[in-house]
């Protein structure tokens, strides 16, 4: 296919609301990048919500900060921007059902995503999973809108780890454990 036909096909796909062929290739390639499964938690009381993410990474050690990409259409996005504090909970293998709930599988939304797990709080008051592999309690430092997502920069004000535990991983469209 020549470049003109490719660009015309891509433009037609975008006009129809479909991802361009390059988006499909990108998505397939990204599925080959293994990542730790985390849950972003935000809100208080009945306004609690959150989402499952594999797009969490370290930004800086001094000051301690991290990045997470959040889809602008995610139900937790508006709460995150208004609350200005959140937690990143790095999951363990027995948290697969929790990861599914926070991903919205089965239509579970809002505070119902928290059912069946033990929650506590650290410095900011954001919900923290008691038996997470690691927890980063963050204040929202910046939110940068790019394309379909918001790049969230969180200043870590408290953190906690569970020693001698393994991570829940996501690779090639499925949850995986760490072979040791």
Tell me what the structure shows.
It is a single chain. 22% of the residues lie in helices and 39% in strands. The N and C termini lie far apart (45 Å). With 180 residues, the protein is of the alpha+beta class. The strands form 3 sheets. A 7-stranded antiparallel sheet has the order 3-2-6-9-10-5-4, with helices on both faces. A 3-stranded antiparallel sheet has the order 1-11-12, with no helix packed on it. A two-stranded antiparallel sheet has the order 7-8.
List the topology elements:
Layout: H1 3-15, H2 21-30, E1 35-36, E2 38-42, E3 49-53, E4 56-61, E5 64-71, H3 75-83, E6 85-90, H4 96-102, E7 119-121, E8 127-129, E9 134-146, E10 149-161, E11 169-171, E12 174-176
Antiparallel strand pairs: 1-11, 2-3, 2-6, 4-5, 5-10, 6-9, 7-8, 9-10, 11-12
- Radius of gyration, CA atoms, in whole angstroms: 18 Å
- Overall 3D form: globular
- How many helices? 4
Strand content: 35-45%
Tell me the strand order in the biggest sheet: 3-2-6-9-10-5-4
Helical proportion?
10-25%
Low-pLDDT segments, ≥5 res? 1-13
Q: What does the largest sheet look like? A: 7 strands, antiparallel
Intertermini distance: 45 Å
Q: Which structural category fits the helices and strands?
A: alpha+beta
Give the strand tally. 12
* Mean pLDDT over the residues: 90
- The SSE order reads HHEEEEEHEHEEEEEE
Short structural description:
With 180 residues, the chain is α+β, with helices and mostly antiparallel strands.
Features:
seven-stranded antiparallel β-sheet; three-stranded antiparallel β-sheet; 180 residues; alpha+beta; globular; disordered N terminus
């Amino acid at each position: 296919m020549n470049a003109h036909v490719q660009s015309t096909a891509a433009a037609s796909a975008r006009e129809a609301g479909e991802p361009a062929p390059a988006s499909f290739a990108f998505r397939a390639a990204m599925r080959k990048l293994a990542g730790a499964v985390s849950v972003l938690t935000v809100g208080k009381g009945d306004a609690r919500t959150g989402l499952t993410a594999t797009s969490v990474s370290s930004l800086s050690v001094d000051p301690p900060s991290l990045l997470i990409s959040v889809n602008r259409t995610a139900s937790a996005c508006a709460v995150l921007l208004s609350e200005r504090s959140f937690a990143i909970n790095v999951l363990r293998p027995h948290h697969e059902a929790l990861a599914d709930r926070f991903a919205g599988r089965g239509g579970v939304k809002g505070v119902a995503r928290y059912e069946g797990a033990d929650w506590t709080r650290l410095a900011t008051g954001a919900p923290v999973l008691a038996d997470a592999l690691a927890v980063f309690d963050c204040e929202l430092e910046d939110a940068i809108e790019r394309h379909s997502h918001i790049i969230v920069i969180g200043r870590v004000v408290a953190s906690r780890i569970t020693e001698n535990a393994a991570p829940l991983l996501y690779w090639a469209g499925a949850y995986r454990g760490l072979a040791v």
